[in-house]
Amino acid sequence: MTEKLWGGRFSEKPDEFLEEFTASVDYDVRLYREDIEGSIAHARMLGETGVITKKESREIIRGLRQILREIEKGEFVPSRKDEDIHMNVEKRLHEIIGDLAGKLHTGRSRNDQVATDLRLHAARAIEDLVGLLGELKRSLVEKAYEYRNVVMPEYTHLQRAQPVLFAHHLLAYVEMLERDEERFLQAKERTLVLPLGSAACTGTSFPLDREMVRKELGFRSVSKNSVDAVSDRDFVAEFLFCVSLTMIHLSRLCEELVLWMSEEFGFIDLPDSLCTGSSIMPQKKNPDMAELVRGKAGRAVGNLVALLTTLKGLPLSYNRDLQEDKEPFFDSLDTLRGSLRAVKLMIEGLSLNVERIRESLPGGYLTATDLAEYLVKKGVPFRKAHEVTGKIVRYAVEGGKALEDLTLEEFKKFSRLIEEDVYRVVDPEESVKGKDLPGGTSPRRVMRRLRELRRKR
Ligand code: ARG
Fold first, then answer.
1. Would the CB of 244 count as within 6 Å of ligand 1?
2. Given this model, what pLDDT does residue 457 score?
3. Which is catalytic among the residues 157, 205, 273, 279?
4. Quick check: bond before 226 cis, omega within 30?
5. Is the beta carbon of 114 within 6 A of some atom in ligand 1?
6. Cβ neighbours of residue 456 under 8 Å, at least 6 residues apart?
7. Model's pTM, two decimal places?
8. Catalytic pick among 221, 262, 278, 351
9. Beta carbons within 10 angstroms of residue 282's beta carbon
10. In the annotation, is 157 catalytic?
11. Structural domains in the chain?
12. Residues 86-133: pLDDT tens digits?
């Protein structure tokens, strides 16, 4: 056997730097399990269809199983000399079972092999990520439940807007993560299309039973076009997008944690064990973990853009450029995995400074909209009510007062319709209670959603 599995047509040894430059085994070694499972399924099918004998098939499978054990025990360490995980496994198989190893690659190319491996790996990675997403959702739901009675300011334009239940605000992130989960699971369905049988690009003259391989490996369907099957990396792009969007959701949550933990807000505290200090300023307690998740969101988006850019100008079918799909893939996978864990720890450890939040409620005219709606209920057209309330707010601002500090006489200067019951209307707790429609922040609605989410676990 030549030193390279493809060495037959070559009269020179490969340049050492070429070997180093083209090798992918440093990272695609992570596909070893899928690679071996794929080879086992292929070998079994070759035996069943009579392309090789059943005895040969069994021998090959035995060798492959041995390699799996060897890799898992660290006894066989794939080397860069053999380029990628696929060549490494085949090379090792030859060492174990001799020339019979050469029959494994019948009717197969690394082009359909690598696409198969990565699809299988991606589908499993999605399952794993969905599990972690579920855990984070649960911790958000539990934290929302723990502080279910806390009313805080909601913001638009980062300006104080209206009173909201803290639980309602936190559950907004649960809604995002629900969509992320659904998106990942839909992507998984499109990922589980089997390329094996497409060989290099046009299929093969051997009568392969693709359906049999599909069943053994747990794919949903077999690819319908061999050219597409070896050149398609849509599933990686989709995966990277799903990761990016999830990371962006986590990043927005982390931005709020950072903001809320600032002295200026002082809404939350994180445990010391989840914060870091400064090498110069002794007083500092920094939310670095939240900042890093926010930072890593950029890296996830970078990985998506990197792959899309790689794919953009590629002619069909397989091109070696496609090997560049793996580093972004693994990096995004690891990034999201770590970030989900980090955010879950922070959410679990987070405590609300309930007193401080309560103190932040008056004074910001958070219930001005409620006051306008109060006038509307007394027959004033909304635009007019908006204007009148605006004037009341201006008057209060100028006098350095909160809405609830105004006397009834002062209110009446702006509208005769305002009565004693206005003080209920400008109370933040009452404001929240009033938002009693589907999707609103009333305690009744929020509790209902909380119950629904807690039951789901
Ligand atoms: N390591 C390669 C990749 O990741 C495997 C396929 C190589 N195929 C080839 N014809 N050179 O894409």
1. no
2. 66
3. 157
4. no
5. yes
6. none
7. 0.95
8. 278
9. 7
10. yes
11. 7-106 (1.10.275.10), 111-359 (1.20.200.10), 361-455 (1.10.40.30)
12. 999 999 999 999 999 999 999 999 999 999 999 999 999 999 999 999
